[in-house]
Amino acid sequence: MGGKTARANVVLSAVVAALLLAPAGHALGSADIAALQVAPRDKGIYAGDVDGVIGPATQRAVRTFQKRKKLTVDGVVGRQTRAALGRFARHDLGNRLLRSGLVGWDVAELQFLLAWHGFPSGEFDGRFGPRLEGAVGGFQRWAGLGADGRAGPATLAALRGPRPRVALALAAPIVAPLGDRFGPRGTRFHAGVDFPAASGAPVSAAAGGRVTYAGWLPGGWGYAVSIAHGGGVRTLYAHLSHVDVRVGASVRTGTRVGLVGSTGHATGPHLHFELRLRGAAVDPLAALG
Questions:
Q1: Residue 230 has pLDDT above 70, yes or no
Q2: Pick from 18, 68, 151, 218: most CB atoms within 10 A?
Q3: In the predicted model, is pLDDT for residue 121 greater than 60?
Q4: CB-CB contact of 42 with 61 (8 Å)
Q5: What's the CA gap between 94 and 159, in Å, rounded?
């Protein structure tokens, strides 16, 4: 730890920021930077998104922390700064077996990588709790590994591989502008895309398939429809005001499945649209024409 590797010395500079910044929802970001954002957030210094992208708020938080701790205010997260940040700045990813009950920099990295591979675990907080254990097990099953809920070398190697992709071409499920995209949002991960639209606007199947769920979906989804398209591919249409299909029904691309609403945990009328491959959340924008 400290100044021995680039991962242990995260240089917060305008040059690095310019290289890493990209449009929201498209930048994968760095798990290292996400872990860096978690550590000062735990101390109430950083209030921005845990998105793995260096920006002014992240730079300001590091410099503010260094000033408070009477460290050299250079924006470099090296040995002294990481030591002062405490338990959430300890342990680089891969240096220990990650399991329930642990906290640290590496746990935050794991949370970030799992989310981008389609298995979000709730808050990016650097704590290995039950939800993270479940997400690790889900990813392990998806990757064909032994599912024990602990992240060792084989799991980390799989997480360093390509993210899930879906070859199926999808039609737009609604005529509406794009809102929130797939990716980090606040301290959590948005596993789909949102389309703000007027309540009652029609929502259509993005591809042909069979309806596997239609009705009220607990967990904040509200009224929702899920369609299986074959090959482990499913789409989800949530926060609907009305459902127009039944479980078991066959639908074609463009078949109306419901109407836009704001049911469940929604701040206003919109369609929340997800794409999944064998349970892993995939960015729908990559499949939408």
A1: yes
A2: 151
A3: yes
A4: no
A5: 12
Do residues 241 and 132 share a domain? Answer: no
Has residue 67 been placed in a domain? yes
Token pair of 55, please? Answer: 């920006």
Predicted local distance difference test score (pLDDT) of residue 166: 94
Of 101, 100, 126, 118, which is closest to residue 31 (Cα–Cα)?
A: 126
Q: Which domain holds residue 150?
A: 10-159
Same domain, 14 and 153: yes
CA–CA distance, 281 with 164 (Å, rounded to integer): 8
pLDDT at 262 over 90: yes
Q: Are residues 188 and 152 in the same domain?
A: no
pLDDT score at 20 = 31
* CA distance readout (Å), 286 to 52, 195, 274: 21, 16, 12
Count of domains for the chain = 2
Give the H or E element holding residue 183: strand 183-185
Asked whether residue 11 carries a pLDDT value surpassing 70, the answer given is no
Q: How far apart are CA 259 and CA 242, in angstroms?
A: 5
Mean pLDDT of 38-54: 94
The CATH number of residue 197's host domain is 2.70.70.10
User: Looking at the structure, do residues 197 and 126 belong to the same domain, yes or no?
Assistant: no
Q: Write down the pTM of the prediction.
A: 0.89
For 25, the 3-state DSSP assignment is coil
**Looking at the structure, do residues 117 and 213 belong to the same domain, yes or no?**
no
